[in-house]
Design a protein that fits this description.
There is one protein chain. By secondary structure, the chain is an alpha/beta fold. It folds into two domains: 3-186, Aldehyde Dehydrogenase, Chain A, domain 1, CATH 3.40.605.10; 189-316, Aldehyde Dehydrogenase, Chain A, domain 2. 39% of the residues lie in helices and 15% in strands. It contains twelve helices and eleven strands. The chain has a six-stranded mixed beta sheet, with helices on both faces. The protein has a five-stranded parallel beta sheet with strand order 3-2-1-4-5, sandwiched between helices. Helix 5 (105-114) links the parallel strand 1 (91-95) and strand 2 (117-121). Helix 1 packs antiparallel against helix 5 (105-114). The longest helix is centred in the first third of the chain and has 17 residues, at 34-50.
Length: 351
């Protein structure tokens, strides 16, 4: 199977995933895929019973992003810098996180596109969707049966590994896989830098960066940097459309619990009924809470963020720094936007 064939398969997969991205999705668009369509549709509904954070809305949002990413132009732009023509196929183990739907999918397609074989160990929180996607690829080419393997137990017989976990599990991964070529990802968080001059549209867009997937992704903004004496009134008005999260039982429970802890601990905080804003120097805020920190000057803040770059996934801002992510775009990464700034395809090309 050539890389051109694998790219063509992913383009078709993108169209297939796009069928689940809107309320008007219909299996009639690709009738030859109707059995897989029905199976995938059922697994989307089942996923929320295995993980209460996986709402159908968020799963469909994820599928829409992948559908828009897997186009011929995007794949060509992504893969042009790499030479995968002379790769000797290896087996690459992937240990996936389960915090948001299909969070390990980029690693999965990277391994396949590079010409290697993939051995997947899924998180128990996200194990319903990817096997059906693998079935779809198998329907396009039976050759994928030799390239895709799922395991529930200990990973065996692999040549390299890509593992994602918490800071604690990363230390275990680093020790356990020390003899293998590896990419080990740890905890990272995203931040937003506000000046007080943001438009209503920018602040509304920031709501997507904060609340999409209930804030569980590493690309979700978990902390704001704001000028001294910043007025949060405009911010709170802009994110009001996300008030519906308070009707989600797990989110509401986290909000009630965290607010109660802050009250008992006599922390200073702001509250609008579904989001607590609390001053803190920490990076990772709990669900329903957003940390903030004041800054005096932009240059000092840039230095602070640079010194802590290994803790940061994205910086959301407008005209603040190079490599910033525009407001509202953290959950729309391009194929070449690598997690932790580690070039996965380069790693795979040199195995």
């Amino acid at each position: 199977m050539t890389i051109h064939q694998r790219k063509d398969h992913l383009i078709l997969l993108g169209k297939f995933l796009g069928e689940f991205a809107t309320e008007n999705a219909s299996e009639n668009a690709y009738p030859q895929n109707q059995p897989l369509y029905e199976k995938f549709d059922m697994e989307i509904d089942r996923a929320k019973h295995y993980n209460g954070w996986f709402t159908r809305e968020n799963i469909e949002f994820s599928l829409k992003q992948w559908s828009e990413a897997l186009t011929e132009d995007n794949l060509n732009t992504w893969l042009t810098p790499y030479d995968t023509g002379n790769i000797s196929p290896k087996t690459v183990g992937i240990i996936m996180a389960g915090n948001i739907p299909l969070v390990g999918f980029h690693d999965f397609i990277s391994v396949l596109l590079s010409g290697h074989k993939v051995l997947v160990k899924q998180s128990s929180n996200d194990q319903r969707l990817l096997p059906v996607i693998a079935d779809y690829l198998l329907s396009l080419d039976p050759g994928y049966s030799d390239s895709i393997t799922f395991t529930d137990g200990r990973m065996l017989n692999f040549d390299a590994v890509i593992a994602t976990g918490s800071n604690n599990t990363a230390r275990y991964f680093e020790y356990y896989f020390k003899a293998k070529p590896s990419i080990i990802r740890k905890n990272r968080n995203s931040v937003a830098v506000l000046t007080g001059n943001e438009s209503k549209a920018e602040l509304e867009a920031l709501g997507n960066d904060i609340f999409r997937y209930f804030g569980l992704g590493c690309r979700n903004v978990s902390k704001l940097y704001v000028p001294e004496n910043y007025d949060f009134d405009s911010f709170y008005k802009a994110v009001e459309p996300w008030h519906h999260l308070s009707h989600h039982a797990k989110y509401a429970n986290n909000y009630d619990y965290n607010k109660a802890v802050y009250l008992m601990s006599e922390f200073k905080f702001l509250d609008n009924g579904f989001l607590v804003l609390r001053p803190s120097e920490e990076w990772s805020s709990p669900i329903s809470t957003l940390f903030f920190e004041n800054y005096k000057d932009k240059q000092g803040l840039k230095q602070h963020l640079q010194e802590n770059k290994e803790k940061i996934q994205c910086i959301v801002s407008s005209g603040f720094t190079e490599g910033e992510v525009p407001f509202g775009q953290t959950q729309h990464p391009q194929l070449w936007d690598y997690a932790d700034d580690v070039d996965t395809m380069s790693f795979l090309a040199t195995l």
